[in-house]
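User: I'm preparing a small set of examples for a lab meeting where we compare how different chains pack in three dimensions. I only have the primary sequence for this one, and I'd like the structure in token form so I can line it up with the others. Please keep the answer compact; I'll paste it straight into my notes.
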Amino acid sequence: MTGRDLRALFSTNDRSVQADEAFTNRASQWETVAAALTAHIQRISAPGFDAEDLEAPRNHVLVFHGVGGIGKTTLSRMLEAALSDAGRRPSQWGEPGWPADRILPVRIDLARSAGTDFEQIVLTIRAALTRIGRPLPAFDLALRRYWEANHPGEPLEEYLRRGGLGSRFGQAMPQQMQSALADVAQALMLPGTIGSAVGQVTGALVSALRERRQTVRALAGCARLADLLEAEPDLDALSFYPHLLAWELARLPEGKRVVPVVLLDTFEDIGDRTRRDLERLVQRAVWLLPNAFWVITGRSRLQWADPALQGQLDYTGPAAWPGLAHTAVPAARTSTAAGTARQVLIGDFSLEDCNDYLARRLTRDGQPLISRPVRQVITARSHGLPLYLDLSVARFLELSRSGRTPQPGDFDHDFPALVARTLTDLTPDERHVLRSVTLLDAFDVPLATRAAGLAHEGPALRLTERPFVREDSFGLWPFHLHGLIRSAVRNADDTTDDRWSERDWQQAAQRAFTTLGEQHHNSPGPGRLLLIACLRQGLRLARDHRLDLGWLTPAAWTYVSDSVWEPLAPPDTDSRGLDTAADALVELLSALARRQHQHRSHTVARLTTVIDSRLLPDDLQHMALYYRAKAHRDLGDSPASRAGMQAVVDGRGRLAPAASRGLAHLARMAGDFPTALATAHTLGWEGRHHRVEGDIWWPHGAMDRAAVAYAAARDEAEHHGVTGERGNSQAHRAFALAFTDPVVADGELALAEQLLVGVDLRATTLITHIAALARDAGRTDADVDDRALVLRAEIRTAGVTYTELALDLALAFHHAVRDDQDQVAMTIARLRENTRGGDFAYYSDIAAFMADMALAHPSGVRWVDGEPATRQRWQDLVSARRRHLRTRRSDTLPPV
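Assistant: Understood. Below is the structure token output for the 896-residue chain.
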């Protein structure tokens, strides 16, 4: 459904442009209204309902709240239209379950610009009820008394005309009120000449009510009428008059009964949380008129169910307002499934709704004026906020007036108006906190308070109750800002009086950064989750605001030490230059995390950029050198790897033991096992000595000895709490035992997979897949060759060269067990081709040992206990596997 958009219409001379106010489907909100209103009608129609009951809980209020510009006012208007006229109900909205003539909608705009006061609220509701076509004497008499006392000499007709109520509802209300006054005067047998003297009529009526005269029995049923007529007719008394309306509505004859639906829009403008004078009057009216249904739209949730408001408002607490005490219902769940919840958060438009809105807002000859590419950019930038769509439409027209066709790049834009709309009803301290938390992806109250530099948490606590602050109760920091609001406040030109300078932003960033470091440092336990969260936010702050590394340096070492490699935000920076140490650290940690998903050559290139920038302190520079050397080793570039490892060893930093292990690995790769073993004995835990020993013994065919070493490495890693090393050692233990006993290997592989859950170690995961092939070697039903093809493709994608050699060893074992000499020979040839550089050249020797073949081209390897012993162990492994398979086949044969 659309109406004319006058602002857009008067923004262009092109009369062919159709500027319509497009209403985008809010079907879920309509379903909520329909369900709640249906339940309300059933409740007030039940025999036990008493409109004068002042103690029963109230569930006749429905609240829609959300950020400024989300479409609350549009929804309020459409609800009024849909309830007034079925023909104006959007086609997507379902049929209501009540007779249309029973519903009497009345919408009241509480915006400051509308100038609505409490008096006008009461008069508007009464004026709407003129459609019933009969006086409401109890209320009308009290209202007439109030009017003459507070507006002497001012005719009510003139007031209604001047306020627009006359044109909206007609002038029947004064006549109905006068008729009620005359009827009461006649019932009291007062002289006709004074029938309009409200003071005398009121006094006589009160006496008659007190004396229970039969002549006023029609009004005597309203138990509190006399009290209200005797009270001073001031604004406070007026707020109790809706009780009289409730009584009048309840006693209407069946054919005249209606259900008022009062829509109060822009509720945030009736006061603030320290001055609730008008809110108290409105709440009183809502409570005293329980047979009306109230739909309230505003920026914030109603706090009426909060017991802390006792004394500020008359009726408070969850017992009084059970529906309002519920947690806000997200937009995706605003249906009848929401149950009795009466606080509904208005959600953002979906991508489809945004596109539909923009396509229908401006048209020419029935076709969208805003092109699809432009609509896509606006939609992506809007985060579903309708106000952003409106502002973008205005920008489109503004650009069109300049004589050129707007392009998608013109809408990579933040609007200052969004800032003004967001800040308008916040206190100065709340605005200060809001700006501070735009620097953070997520926050809690203490973090927001410290980032803002405040000594008290109240403003941050109040800010979390605002609709543009979203809550994830399962998050480490539970709160985050609506994406568009955060972008607008952070990036748009702020024209407010208390806007921040660049120095203000810098100081806030430093406060937030320092607080994150303190939270990480003061964590009671290892706190891996907190570490990653602090790093993600801290890295962004340090990079974007050129901060010193500070606590990021020890945090980076903690991150690296576990070898888990969770992805870190901010995103990769390999497309931008490195200007600061923070830039370099972001790129370093990103490269290390991403190397599990990128070819190692890309890792080398990224780390080389970091190293060449020389922006990092020495210890972090050595980190980059060490992991580049590891990547060189994975790529098979041993000279470059050896040079890098030696440079780290010479630096005597905290990675020196690990680099010594790297040199031991390089010696093992070159076939110098005695040197590698001697080095392993000097490494200690820091150099992962047990794992290095396991890496030395399994090429010798000493699988049991290797498995023991790997188990010791696993247990030592668990003792030190290093998750990645624990999983890595167990995976290698499973690999070694896969050549000995398939049954034992099953359990070891299961444990390895369990320990690697949540650990991003791609090469280690590949080792477990190779171990599974070795476990199944010799079996005809295991599709070993087909699985190896898939695995080889994964290995080449990862660029981890040495694991492909291990894969070929597992295949050689498979073919040797099956006594397929040709396949073994082909595998040996492939191994020799892939080890021409000298590293792992002995793998082809091992493949020959398995099949008991002569060495056509000896590698020159130096075995720890000589070639014959190593050859014999590998042959024994093949023989043992053959015996295992024969036993397995005999166990499955049917009995003779």
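A couple of notes for your slides: Residues 2-24+349-413 form one domain. The radius of gyration is 40 Å.

User: Perfect, thanks.
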